[in-house]
């Protein structure tokens, strides 16, 4: 397995845990770290069925983008830096497998945007979410204005972005930013439990379901429904569909083979 300077990777039982590890900066995202993430995502083990993203230590998921790197940039350089993060986070969003963000501690700026790019977000009780960029003279640059609005609605997104105010885990749960909140010591156990509930299902069907949800979101209703119908039909060309329905009808357990 390839080693990285800022990433820790663990794979077990078809679940990969990716840990962002830059503890001196509370796991802040610099351009080298983002390039490592890009490389990791491009070379993810095809046998992995769920990816969990978390931060190293108990204080921070990702505290944001590296302000010391951003401070001297001009407009062209700033746009280029933002594009790197946006490209990596889009790659996470469009991975064919589900991605779970296990948010431990600070998820601010780029850290919040990283969580937003994941399919499911769960948090520890000490987590804090926010987009503090306008307090630094910039705006969210890793697709935060786009994804935050889709996930929590325009009103909550505008309030979080305009005020630069960080919210605690219970408020994040209330507005739908996270799916669940757990005691810090239980966070990774719960993330793995969730991942294994996904892994037991037909991987092609899970992949198709994610594709449908992502692709249909901005389509008109008729196009979205037609898209789902096509993908539904494609499921019947898989051996997993035959095995799953046969097992159900005969009250048997099934082991899906991703075929």
What would a concise description of this structure say?
This protein is of the alpha/beta class. Helices cover 47% and strands 16% of the residues.
Care to describe what's here?
There is one protein chain. This protein has 11 helices and 10 strands. The longest helix is centred in the N-terminal third of the chain and has 19 residues, at 75-93. 34% of the residues are buried. It is globular. It is 47% helix and 16% strand. A 6-stranded mixed β-sheet has the order 1-2-3-5-7-10, sandwiched between helices. A 4-stranded mixed β-sheet has the order 4-6-8-9. By secondary structure, the chain is an alpha/beta fold. It has helices at 31-42, 67-70, 75-93, 110-117, 144-152, 154-163, 169-174, 187-199, 203-216, 221-235, 239-249; strands spanning 7-12, 15-20, 50-55, 60-62, 99-103, 106-108, 120-124, 128-130, 167-168, 180-182. Helix 1 (31-42) runs parallel beside helix 3 and helix 3 (75-93) packs parallel to helix 4.
Percent range of helical residues: 40-55%
Give the overall average pLDDT: 97
Instruction: Tell me the fraction of residues in β-strands, as a range.
Output: 15-25%
Question: Strand order, biggest sheet?
Answer: 1-2-3-5-7-10
Low-pLDDT parts are none
């Amino acid at each position: 397995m390839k080693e990285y300077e800022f990433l820790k990777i663990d794979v077990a039982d078809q679940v990969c845990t990716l840990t962002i590890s830059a503890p001196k900066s509370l796991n802040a995202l610099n351009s080298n770290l983002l390039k490592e993430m890009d490389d990791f995502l491009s070379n993810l083990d095809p046998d992995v069925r769920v990816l969990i993203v978390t931060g190293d230590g108990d204080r921070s998921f990702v505290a944001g983008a590296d302000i010391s790197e951003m401070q001297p940039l001009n407009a062209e350089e700033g746009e280029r830096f933002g594009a790197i993060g946006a490209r990596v986070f889009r790659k996470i969003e469009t991975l064919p497998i589900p991605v779970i963000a296990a948010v431990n501690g600070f998820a601010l700026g780029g850290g919040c945007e990283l969580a937003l790019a994941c399919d499911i977000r769960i948090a520890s009780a000490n987590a804090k979410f926010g987009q503090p960029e306008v307090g630094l003279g910039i705006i969210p640059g890793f697709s935060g204005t786009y994804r935050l609005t889709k996930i929590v609605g325009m009103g909550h997104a505008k309030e979080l972005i305009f005020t630069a105010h960080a919210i605690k885990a219970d408020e994040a749960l209330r507005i739908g930013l996270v799916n669940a909140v757990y005691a810090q010591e239980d966070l990774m156990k719960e993330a793995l439990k969730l991942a294994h509930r996904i892994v037991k299902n037909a991987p092609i069907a899970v992949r198709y379901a994610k594709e449908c949800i992502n692709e249909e979101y901005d389509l008109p209703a008729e196009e979205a429904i037609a898209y789902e119908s096509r993908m539904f039909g494609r499921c019947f060309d898989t051996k997993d569909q035959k095995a799953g329905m046969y097992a159900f009808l005969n009250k048997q357990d099934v082991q899906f083979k991703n075929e």
